[in-house]
Design goal:
mainly alpha, two-stranded antiparallel ribbon, 2 strands, globular
């Protein structure tokens, strides 16, 4: 009897182990299956792109190919990571950790930024070192801490051997030829298609068939503080459709920056980093270039009374001076203190939460086609 029970227990353990291994194997290899794509490509061109000539090199077929490449682990050196490993749709195409886990378990140097309205952007990476999306995707895929990819004949051969890629490249570019340049163009098309415009903040005041979207009193108070450029002035840096700026800023995070940001090239810009989008900000924590703040409340508390008097602090963050952000050698005044009440700080956070676009976060056009 005891022997039979031992055999039964051992059999169950072995079965569980084998099933577990099969699931792990499936999770590692599923992306080698053909992607599930619609017969006709989704519409990817952004709704407000008509006046932006940067979208001349754009097609729905190209963005479709870019979507497949974005989620394909073949584009990493170890065939285990994709762009989506760090840029997760559920988190606004950012990551939910301070530093992302890259190739061979190495952490990235900086927090993974969210992705949206990139067709409006003029500089990329936290230090704005690249000025085109094509350069961004190439540099990120080849970075030894991120994906470590080396564009080579081996990679082109691997993609060409996949049953679905030749047809996708032909649809996008007219021939089946697979090149580094075409990979970069297709990924850039997909990234330029990431447009989020259906949040509560976007719809506030609009009348829909059966309802009218309105802010709560707290959200309305937060909105008024956000756009009040005399006292608070968040909109001075975070404006426009993307709710961000095309320049960088030093916001006084510390007196000595371990990461100098743009100051790596220009000392007057030490501690300057690209001003990020605030769209879907509630799901893109942690915050700042190094992911130091875990919550929006911590971010607002920093602006309220935590700005440090760094020598390159942007002008906007000097007490009593309201000007566009930029380098300012030396300190002639104390850093700005908002001195907001706890209620007003909570109101700003409440408004920022209305920038979440749930439909964008679940939009099938941007989702993993291999699942």
């Amino acid at each position: 009897m005891i022997y039979n029970r031992l055999v039964l227990i051992l059999t169950c353990i072995i079965f569980t182990f084998l099933v577990g291994c099969e699931k792990v194997e499936d999770s590692l290899n599923y992306k080698y299956d053909a992607p599930s794509l619609p017969e006709l490509p989704f519409r990817y061109r952004p709704n407000i792109s008509a006046n932006y000539p940067t979208l001349e090199d754009f097609s729905d077929e190209g963005a479709t190919l870019g979507r497949v490449l974005f989620y394909d682990v073949r584009l990493s050196a170890n065939n285990k990571m994709s762009c989506s490993s760090c840029h997760k749709q559920a988190h606004g195409f950012g990551d939910n950790v301070s530093k992302s886990v890259g190739l061979e378990g190495k952490l990235t140097r900086r927090n993974t930024p969210s992705l949206d309205y990139l067709f409006l952007a003029q500089a990329f990476f936290w230090d704005s070192r690249e000025d085109t999306l094509e350069a961004l995707v190439t540099k990120n895929n080849t970075h030894n801490r991120a994906m470590g990819l080396v564009y080579s004949d081996h990679l082109m051969g691997e993609l060409s051997q996949a049953s679905f890629y030749p047809a996708l490249f032909e649809d996008a570019f007219g021939t089946e030829e697979i090149t580094q340049e075409r990979i970069g163009r297709a990924l850039a098309m997909f990234l330029r298609s990431l447009e989020t415009y259906r949040s509560k903040a976007d719809q506030a005041g609009q009348v829909f068939p059966d309802t009218r979207i309105v802010f709560t009193p707290q959200e309305e108070r937060g909105f008024q503080l956000f756009v009040d450029n005399v006292n608070v002035g968040c909109v001075g840096c975070h404006g426009g459709s993307a709710i961000r700026s095309t320049v960088g800023a030093n916001i006084g995070l510390e007196m000595e920056y371990a990461d100098p940001g743009m100051g790596r090239i220009d000392r007057e810009k030490e501690g300057h980093f690209r001003i990020p989008s605030l769209r879907n900000i509630a799901v893109t924590a942690p915050y700042m270039h190094d992911g130091r703040f875990q919550t929006l409340e911590e971010v607002i508390a920093h602006y309220n009374n935590g700005i440090q008097p760094h020598h390159a602090l942007s002008i906007k963050f000097h007490n009593g001076i309201i000007l566009p952000p930029g380098p300012r050698p030396g300190i002639e005044s104390e850093p700005k203190r908002l001195n907001l009440s706890e209620q007003d700080q909570a109101a700003i956070v409440a408004y920022l939460r209305t920038l979440t676009d749930e439909r964008f976060l679940a939009d099938i056009r941007y989702s993993d086609p291999f699942r």
